[in-house]
């Protein structure tokens, strides 16, 4: 599908907004999306969106949505010898996921840059994995349509849940932030420290009540992943998020790897007990403003979210090697790629596997050949196989779906979910 057809489809869908309880975001593509798609293939200039994203923007330095597992997961591993430190320009958007000076995954609370498919100028001698087309996104869509990509892995972070309306517990002035101030936390991330939780679990459960799954609608990005599943193309979805929105979108749990855990199950933290509890059992206690305690040993019961000081779920490591060996298209959406070991698994796919980053800024790059993304063919004659789409993940997924000929299905999938949830709420 060419650019004109995508624009026509987007325009046809304008005004078909569906909401759940007059809240959350629309199921259709917004007018802003259609306007931005017009400029999606403009080559970047020094004054364009790509250049602007590489400069420091103080307005985006504020701490932001701490629900996601880039805040709640295993501590950031310091760069290994020979690896690259994050540049100052990159750090203006993202930072360590631990410590009091954390900047969070990406500053998702600010406006995204205009949607833009990055068009690299490859050096002489560089070969590209992508066929000649109007854009790299179109070329990747062609790989899917022609059956060259059949085993897709999606890696996702906080950015795909931005439009779900989940509150930010680290931004002053929000009710949730103000509610947590009475606990005098040493720093916001203490709420996800296992040591602090053992001493004082109350702040976490106050946060959990606000953020508990079932209160938010999956975004268009989640439903794009669901659409990949329906097409028989989704090999696995690896997510850093703990919000369970993938499950809410109907993605088969067997296809989901919640790298930093989730609310779906809970366990007693007693070292000799470890009794399992359901999400419903924990929710019942939390919504009665009670601290959940084990019926067997009276220890605290904690949702299976990976806190600082805890190891990642075994499922992450059990599936990683086999999945990435099979992968023939890797899509990375809405993550800073700063938290290890999640960040480095982009290098586990084969050397001829195309990799697509959909994000507000370029991340995951390295000066070392063969490590991280290489969007510009910086290593001369090495194979160019990385593509970058700058902007909001929902808008990018709509554009990608348009190139695939799936846009109507994507919009209908989310709309039908919202309608169904509306019926459930009315009962």
Automatic annotation (TrEMBL):
Keyword Cytoplasm tagged: no
Active-site residue numbers: 260 (proton acceptor)
Family matches, as PROSITE patterns: SIRTUIN (PS50305)
Keyword NAD attributed: yes
Biased composition (Basic and acidic residues): 54-63
Cofactor: Zn(2+)
Keywords, alphabetical: Metal-binding, NAD, Transferase, Zinc
Stored PANTHER family: NAD-DEPENDENT PROTEIN DEACETYLASE SIRTUIN-2 (PTHR11085:SF6), NAD-DEPENDENT PROTEIN DEACYLASE SIRTUIN-5, MITOCHONDRIAL-RELATED (PTHR11085)
Name under which the protein is recorded: NAD-dependent protein deacetylase sirtuin-2
Organism expressing this protein natively: Coemansia spiralis
């Amino acid at each position: 599908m060419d650019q004109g057809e995508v624009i026509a489809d987007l325009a046809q869908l304008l005004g078909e907004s569906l909401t759940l309880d007059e809240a959350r975001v629309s199921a259709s593509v917004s007018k802003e999306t259609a306007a931005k798609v017009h400029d999606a293939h403009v080559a970047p200039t020094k004054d364009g969106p790509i250049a602007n994203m590489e400069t420091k923007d103080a307005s985006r330095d504020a701490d932001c949505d701490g629900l996601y597992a880039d805040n709640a997961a295993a501590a950031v591993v310091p760069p290994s010898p020979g690896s690259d430190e994050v540049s100052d320009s990159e750090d203006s958007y993202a930072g360590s996921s631990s410590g009091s000076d954390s900047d969070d995954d990406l500053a998702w609370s600010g406006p995204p840059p205009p949607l833009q498919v990055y068009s690299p100028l490859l050096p002489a001698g560089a070969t590209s994995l992508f066929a000649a087309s109007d854009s790299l996104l179109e070329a990747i869509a062609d790989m899917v349509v022609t059956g060259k990509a059949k085993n897709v892995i999606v890696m996702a972070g906080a950015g795909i849940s931005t439009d779900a309306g989940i509150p930010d517990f680290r931004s002053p002035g929000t009710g949730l932030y103000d509610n947590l101030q009475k606990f005098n936390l040493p720093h916001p991330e203490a709420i996800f420290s296992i040591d602090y939780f053992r001493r004082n679990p109350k702040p976490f459960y106050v946060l959990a009540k606000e953020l508990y799954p079932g209160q938010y609608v999956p975004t268009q990005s989640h439903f794009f992943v669901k659409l990949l599943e329906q097409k028989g193309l989704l090999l696995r979805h690896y997510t850093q998020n703990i919000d369970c929105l993938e499950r809410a979108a109907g993605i088969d749990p067997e296809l989901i790897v919640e790298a930093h855990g989730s609310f779906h199950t809970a366990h007693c933290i007693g070292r000799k007990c470890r009794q399992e509890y359901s999400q419903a059992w924990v929710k019942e206690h939390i919504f009665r403003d009670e601290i959940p305690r084990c019926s067997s040993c009276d220890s605290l019961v904690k949702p299976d979210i990976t806190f600082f000081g805890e190891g990642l779920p075994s499922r992450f490591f059990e599936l990683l090697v086999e999945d990435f060996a099979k992968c023939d298209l890797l899509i990375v959406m809405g993550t800073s790629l700063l938290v290890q070991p999640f960040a480095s698994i982009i290098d586990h796919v084969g050397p001829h596997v195309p990799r697509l980053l959909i994000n507000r800024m370029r991340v995951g790059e390295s000066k070392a050949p063969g490590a991280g993304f290489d969007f510009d063919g910086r290593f001369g004659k090495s194979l160019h196989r990385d593509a970058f789409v700058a902007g909001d993940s929902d808008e990018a997924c709509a554009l990608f779906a348009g190139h695939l000929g799936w846009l109507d299905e994507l919009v209908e999938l989310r709309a039908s979910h919202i309608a169904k949830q509306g019926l459930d709420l009315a009962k």
